[in-house]
Amino acid sequence: MHTPVTIIGAGLGGLTLARVLHVHGVPVTVHEADASPTARAQGGMLDIHDHNGRLALKKADLMEEFHSIVIEGRQTMRLVERDGTVLHETVDDGTGGRPEVQRAELRRLLLDSLPAGTVRWGQKATGARSLGEGRHEVTFFDGSTVVTSLLVGADGAWSRVRPLLSDAVPEYAGTSFVETYLFDADTRHTRSARLVGGGSMIAPSPGKEIFTHRESGDTLHTYAALARPEAWFAAIDFADPAAAAARIAHEFDGWAPELTALITDADTGPVLRPHHALPAGLRWSRVPGVTLIGDAAHLAAPNGEGANLAMLDGAELGKSLASHPGDAEAALAEHEQSMHARSAEPVTFEGDETFGLDSENNTAQAMLRMLTQQDASA
Q1: Which of 59, 88, 239, 303 is a plausible cystine mate for 79, CB 3.0–4.6 Å?
Q2: Residues in the chain with pLDDT < 50?
Q3: Residue 317 near residue 335, CB atoms below 8 Å
Q4: Which co-factors does it depend on (predicted)?
Q5: Is 295 known as a binding-site position?
Q6: Per-domain residue ranges for the chain?
């Protein structure tokens, strides 16, 4: 018989795990802090990769549903110089391995694939403790508790389950995003919209970059990335949107007006998104009855793989649990071994040459050379 599974966190990783368990007839309950599926915004676009995110969806038997939410044309990507010169464009011809979807739509798809009542909303975990013999108790904000013999922490960066396994805590990674949105961009922000094109656009420079996604319709979602200390951002009054936008845009002084307008002309106030990370290569000793997936296990600064890895973590754990009825410990050990190996793989564009925000290689010309080499070898 299968041990019932208790998942903390209804993000993409936790929901993928719940779906795979449901497909295999394993009883599962998910506890989520949000009061409802629409209690808060779910972020922007996600590119779901062939080798991890889409593989997870195949294991969840959701590929047909996934194809229905893919936004055509969004794999188009433009590389531009700071003066707005378009250096390279990769056109979405429908054959790429990273189809784009809205995160909220993907989460809804996963939620809809589960039986009613699987997710318990408004259950914000505040702590967890061991009861011995592989059993654990999770306490929620409202004072209620749940006791389980198989606990999975899918509760993100500030996981309340992680302390059962490790004393590691996320630290500031040295970079942050400042997010903005432009609505009805094709008619109200035409110059910026033309530069972004039909998919995404990146304008890189050492220590800073502007990255923009064209989301559903003609909404432009921009991430102004800066390598600055936390104290530098703390000195900016984000409660004053105009002043904050001007301060961030000042860091891109001399860049093309249609690039800086993505910050200064935004229809929303700039939102600070600091990046945190767990120690690279984090491991822990096997603790009976509990494990982690996604950011709870291997939080890293944004690299395009976070959501994809979380989904694959969930799918692989679900498969392992289904394959080891009556021996959950064998499944958890198998899961942790493969997850740690996956999360340890460096994210690079070409060989060992890393294009991080702090890297001297983070320039439009360096990325153009990389893209040209890839095109020549294709």
Answers
A1: 88
A2: 348-354
A3: yes
A4: FAD
A5: yes
A6: 5-72+97-170+278-343, 171-277
Q: Determine if residue 47 is labeled as part of a ligand binding site.
A: yes
Q: Which tokens in the block code for residue 161?
A: 């389950």
Q: Global pTM?
A: 0.92
Q: Do 80 and 201 form a contact (C-beta atoms < 8 A)?
A: yes
Look-up of token digits 């320039």: 363
CA dist., res. 348 & res. 337, Å (int): 22
Residue among 90, 118, 163, 135 at smallest CA distance from 23: 118
Q: How many CB atoms lie within 10 A of CB 31?
A: 24
* Model pLDDT, residue 375: 57
- For the segment 87-104, what is each residue's pLDDT rounded down to a tens digit? 999 887 777 788 899 999
The whole-angstrom separation of Cα 320 and Cα 322 is 5
For residue 92, report the phi and psi dihedrals to the nearest 5 degrees. Answer: -80, 105
Token pair for 356: 């991080």
Using CA atoms of 353, 356, 361, 364 in order, give the dihedral in degrees to the nearest 10. Answer: 120
Domain 5-72+97-170+278-343 has CATH 3.40.50.2300: no
Compute the distance between CA of residue 98 and CA of residue 50 in angstroms, rounded to an integer. Answer: 7
16: closest CA among 48, 38, 45, 40?
48
Beta strands across the sheet bearing 125-132: 125-132, 135-140, 145-148
CATH number for 171-277 (one of 1.10.645.10, 3.30.9.30, 3.10.20.30, 3.30.930.10): it is: 3.30.9.30
Contact 7, 154 (CB under 8 A): yes
According to the model, what pLDDT value does residue 348 have?
47
